[in-house]
C-alpha cells in the first residue's frame, strides 16, 4: 500500500509502505512456502504470468514480474512472484506468495500479499 500526502492542490508526494522484512521464516506456513518454492524451481521459475499444472490435478498461478516498487526487498534484484497454494484453474487467488530474486536465488515468503516478507 502507498500512503499519499495531500495538499490543497492534490497529491504532492508518496511514501512507501513499511513492510516487515525478516531474515528467516519460522512462522506458520513457512513449510508450505518452501514446498511451493521447490515445485516452482522444478518448473524453472516461469516468468510468464499464468496458470501452471500442479500435483493432484490442480493448478497454481504466477503473476510474473514483481516490481518491488515500494523498495521493501533489497534493491537491484529481478523479482518474480508465485502463489503458494494450488487450486482449481481460474479460482480466486489468496494472499500467500513467494517472491524469488532471479539474480541471486534468494526467496521470500509473504503470507499477507506483500505486507510482510520472510526469507526462506
What would your notes on this structure say?
The structure is a single chain. With 120 residues, the protein is mainly β. It has one domain (20-119): Microbial ribonucleases (Nuclear Transport Factor 2, Chain: A), CATH 3.10.450.30. It is 11% helix and 37% strand. The protein has one helix and nine strands; from the N terminus they run E-E-E-H-E-E-E-E-E-E. It has a seven-stranded mixed beta sheet with strand order 3-9-8-7-6-5-4, with helices on one face. A two-stranded antiparallel ribbon has the order 1-2. A hairpin with a 5-residue loop joins strand 7 (97-101) and strand 8 (107-110). It is globular. Residues 1-16 have low confidence and may be disordered.
What's this model, at a glance?
The chain is mainly beta. The protein has one helix spanning 30-42; strands at 3-7, 10-15, 20-22, 50-53, 59-66, 79-83, 97-101, 107-110, 116-119.
Amino acid at each position: 500500500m502507498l500512503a499519499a500526502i495531500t495538499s490543497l492542490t492534490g497529491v504532492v508526494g508518496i511514501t512507501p509502505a513499511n513492510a516487515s522484512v525478516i531474515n528467516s521464516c519460522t512462522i506458520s506456513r513457512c513449510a508450505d512456502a518452501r514446498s511451493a518454492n521447490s515445485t516452482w524451481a522444478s518448473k524453472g521459475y516461469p516468468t510468464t504470468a499464468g496458470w501452471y499444472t500442479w500435483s493432484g490435478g490442480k493448478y497454481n498461478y504466477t503473476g510474473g514480474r514483481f516490481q518491488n516498487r515500494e523498495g521493501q526487498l533489497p534493491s537491484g534484484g529481478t523479482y518474480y512472484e508465485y502463489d503458494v497454494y494450488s487450486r482449481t484453474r481460474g479460482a480466486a487467488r489468496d494472499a500467500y506468495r513467494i517472491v524469488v530474486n532471479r539474480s541471486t536465488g534468494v526467496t521470500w515468503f509473504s503470507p499477507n500479499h506483500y505486507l510482510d516478507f520472510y526469507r526462506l
